[in-house]
Amino acid sequence: MSKKYYTDEEKQLITELYKEKKSLTEIAQVCNRSVSAIRTFLHTAKTSQGGSVRHAEIVELTSRVIADYLSNTDVHAIDLAKKYNMSDKTILKILNGKGINTKYSNGRNCLVPNTDIFQNIDTEEKAYWLGFLYADGSIDKKRRTLSITQMSKSIDILEKFCKFLDVPVKLIKKRKNRPSEQYLKISSVILCKDLIKHGIIPNKTYEGILPEVSEELMKDFVRGLWDGDGAMKKGRCIQLTGSKDTTEKVLSWLLLQGVGPDGIKIYSYKPTTHQLIINRYAVGDLVTAILYKDATVYLNRKNPYHNCPSVSQDTECIPE
Description:
Helix 2 packs across helix 3, helix 5 packs across helix 6 and helix 7 packs parallel to helix 11. This protein has a 4-stranded antiparallel beta sheet with strand order 3-4-6-5. The chain has 13 helices and 10 strands. The protein has 320 residues and is of the alpha+beta class.
């Protein structure tokens, strides 16, 4: 039978051990009591520092969790959860609550150094990835999770995005029920809030409004958009699928770049589905040159110059 009452000597000993920052487990071992009994006593007795002991215990435990996480970049939420007898969700809540950015995928997490990278779109890479995510990215607002799915033949684009965010490529997973597809999931409140601010929202492909991007970076944004939602049909035409706002703004931008109006049109298949169709033999080569010539970030299989690095400005290098 467990002890129920404490002598004055036991009370003093427990209090002194606690003030010496001994853990509840250590105190329980010294006093031959259960951890729950020690916790109950301290909670009832309070401490001279003020506030409940339970609160002080939580503060101390939180500090230890954060210290463990920051001292080892390979540690995962599930590892800390086992160590501290918590759920991985509680561990992530502690870390995120202290402003520590994490990525969460399949029960695993790690640091996302560039979580605020989309706060301002001021480089070629940022503009490109914003366009690509506008086309192929998906955000779960509730979980604040960014998801990207690609066919295996386009795995290079997921690898490049991992490098862009400085996160491990091993986070890319194969779908169990669709082996030809691979996906990447990244959870970050800050990252998702910034992307939502720029228009990466549910149903954006058919209902969204194109984000505002500076004129000097518009080429990179459109290239990302094209890598995500563009296609070449039987070598005869190039097409971009999107909302009315998206296709009209891209068409207006292409016209400003010197692309002639002949051979380029917008078709409406449904009230919310539009396609910008470009005749390859009319202006297709010019469009691809505008988007891909001298680009440093792109989807390999859609860049006509990727396999022809030595091609001159006047040489045609369009894949069949």
